[in-house]
Design a protein that fits this description.
The protein is of the alpha+beta class. 28% of the residues lie in helices and 23% in strands.
């Protein structure tokens, strides 16, 4: 499925940022409490040239903007940890990049001082979920085969297209995991 950005989204100068914001807008339209979603990023001009029928099906006619077209992949396996799932992916050469959107609970850095020691993963998740300063956030992270990265963060408490934070290093761990899908 190809997606289109909605009005009010921040303007983006480069194709990867535009693709990440397009995916963020798509995920926003689906509402919150959604599963993680994985997208292949393909060069739009190359897609139109090599797969014209698919390009037409995705609404990418001759007047479609140049750049990257996000194509949603099959649903991620339920119950499998995200890092384990990403370790199983290897993209064909035609894929220019990939992106993932996922919802998580986050705490401000000041909350680290009150973090109890020796918590296992389940206990840590419960502690974060009960913390009064927790914030629900949707993270959309994209990487290109050549190494470029981009992220978009949207807080549930400030869910509007004009309140999306973007930056290459906002979610470095997830960007690393996505970049690793192009290695080997």
């Amino acid at each position: 499925m190809s997606i289109n950005a909605t009005d009010g989204a921040p303007l983006a100068a480069n194709p990867l940022t535009r693709a990440v914001l397009e995916i963020d807008a798509y995920a926003s339209g689906l509402g919150w409490d959604q599963p993680a979603r994985l997208f292949a990023l393909v060069d739009t001009a190359q897609l139109r040239a090599q797969e014209p029928a698919l390009a037409r099906q995705l609404g990418l006619g001759a007047n479609a903007a140049a750049g990257l077209t996000p194509i949603e992949q099959e649903e991620l396996p339920p119950g499998q940890p995200l890092d384990e799932f990403l370790a199983t992916i290897a993209w064909p050469e035609v894929i220019a990049g990939c992106a993932l959107t996922v919802e998580r609970l986050m705490l401000p850095p000041s909350a680290e001082t009150s973090l109890p020691e020796d918590l296992d993963d389940d206990s840590l998740a419960s502690w974060v979920a009960a913390h009064p300063q927790r914030q629900e956030v949707r993270m959309t992270v994209g990487v290109l085969r050549g190494g470029a990265r981009e992220s978009a963060l949207r807080l549930r408490a400030k869910d509007s297209p004009s309140d999306v934070l973007t930056g290459a290093e906002l979610v470095p761990g997830l960007a690393e995991a996505l970049a690793a899908t192009f290695e080997g």
